[in-house]
Specification:
The protein has 314 residues and is mainly alpha-helical. The protein is built from 11 helices and no strands. The protein has helices spanning 13-43, 55-67, 75-80, 86-123, 125-143, 148-159, 169-176, 184-209, 220-250, 259-270, 279-309. α4 packs antiparallel against α5 and α4 (86-123) crosses α6. It is globular and about 55 Å long.
C-alpha cells in the first residue's frame, strides 16, 4: 500500500515510482546478503543436521551451504560472497518495488470503483474493505510473473554461479529465451496467496486491531505492526511454493527439472519440513526490512514530489 499521507494531497505517480525505486535500491544493499542465505538454504537438498552428527559437524555443513567456496576464507571474504547477482537483484528489486507500490493502489481503486458494492454485500463493510485490499494485492502478485527473468538470473547467481561461466547476459538471454520463465506457474501459485496474505493481513490489522477507517491515516507504529503481521502471514503461506520455485530456478540452464519432480523428491527424501526451509531467516529479516523500506518510501516519495513540482510544502 502507498505510504500514509494527507488524504487531501496525493503525490504524483512519477514521485511514487521514483521514491519506491530509491527505497528499493537502499533496501537491496542492506538486505541482499540475508536473501542470499535464505535462497541457498532453500536450494540445499541435503540434511544439515543429520542423525549421528555432532554440533561441530552440523555447523561446518551449514557454513559450507551458506558461504560455498568462501567457507574457509576470512570473515570479510565470507560477507562479500553473499553479494552474487547484485546487478540482476538491483533490476529486479527496483522494478518490483515500483510495480507493487504503484500497482496495488491502482488495482484497489479499480476494484473499489467497479466491484466495491459486491465486496461489501459478500463480506460486510469492514471485512469487504480488507478483502478488497487483499484481492488487489493478489492480482498484482500474479502479474509480477512478468519480472520473472530478472528473479531467475538473480537466484542462479546466488545459488548456481557455475551456470554463468563463459556467458554474458546477452548470450544467456539469446540462448535461453522463454526458458527464463521456467517456474512461472509455481511463481504465480506462490504470489497469489502470498500477496493476498500480505496486503490482506496488513489491512486486517489496521481494521480490527487499530480500528482505522482510512488506512492511509495510520501512524508509523501502526504501519509497522500491520506490515509485520501481513508479511509474516505472507511468508508462511507462500513458503512451500517458494522453496519449489527457488529450486526450479536454481538448476543449471542445461539441466532443467519440473516442479512436480522436485516436489515428489522433497517429500520422499527430505520430508514435509523441507517445504519450510529458509523460512526462519526470511521471517527474522521481515521486521527490520519492512520498517527500513517503508520508512524510506514515506520520506522519498514526498521529497521527490517537491523536487518535481518545484515547491516546498510545509
Amino acid at each position: 500500500m502507498s505510504p500514509p499521507g494527507n488524504s487531501k494531497y496525493k503525490e504524483s505517480g512519477t514521485a511514487r515510482l521514483l521514491g519506491a525505486g530509491t527505497s528499493g535500491i537502499l533496501e537491496l544493499f542492506t538486505f541482499h546478503p540475508v536473501d542470499t542465505v535464505a535462497k541457498r538454504l532453500m536450494s540445499n537438498t541435503e540434511r544439515i543436521h543429520g542423525p549421528g552428527q555432532t554440533t561441530a559437524q552440523s555447523l561446518s555443513k551449514l557454513n559450507q551451504v551458506i558461504f560455498r567456496d568462501a567457507a574457509a576464507k576470512a570473515t570479510i571474504s565470507k560477507y562479500l560472497s553473499l553479494f552474487p547477482g547484485l546487478g540482476y537483484a538491483a533490476g529486479y528489486k527496483v522494478a518490483q518495488r515500483m510495480y507493487k507500490f504503484g500497482g496495488q493502489p491502482v488495482a484497489r481503486d479499480f476494484l473499489e470503483h467497479h466491484y466495491g458494492q459486491s465486496f461489501t454485500r459478500a463480506f460486510g463493510d469492514r471485512n469487504g474493505k480488507a478483502m478488497l485490499h487483499a484481492t488487489a494485492g493478489s492480482l498484482i502478485g500474479i502479474g509480477e510473473v512478468a519480472l520473472l527473468p530478472l528473479d531467475v538470473l538473480k537466484i542462479k547467481r546466488q545459488t548456481n554461479p557455475e551456470a554463468f561461466r563463459g556467458r554474458g547476459l546477452v548470450r544467456i538471454v539469446c540462448d535461453e529465451g522463454m526458458g527464463l520463465y521456467r517456474g512461472a506457474g509455481w511463481t504465480m501459485l506462490r504470489n497469489a496467496p502470498g500477496s493476498f496474505a500480505l496486503f490482506g493481513g496488513s489491512a486486517f490489522v489496521k481494521e480490527y486491531v487499530f480500528g482505522l477507517e482510512n488506512y492511509n491515516n495510520a501512524t508509523f507504529m501502526q504501519n509497522f505492526f500491520a506490515s509485520i503481521g501481513g508479511a509474516v502471514a505472507s511468508l508462511t503461506v507462500s513458503a512451500p511454493m517458494d522453496v519449489i520455485k527457488t529450486r526450479i530456478q536454481a538448476r543449471s540452464f542445461d539441466s532443467p527439472e519440473s516442479g512436480m519432480t522436485i516436489l515428489r523428491r522433497m517429500v520422499q527424501q527430505e520430508g514435509f519440513s523441507s517445504f519450510f526451509k529458509g523460512l526462519t531467516p526470511k521471517i527474522l529479516v521481515v521486521g527490520p526490512k519492512l520498517v527500513f523500506g517503508f520508512t524510506l518510501a514515506q520520506w522519498f516519495i514526498p521529497t521527490f514530489d517537491r523536487m518535481l513540482k518545484g515547491n516546498d510544502r510545509s
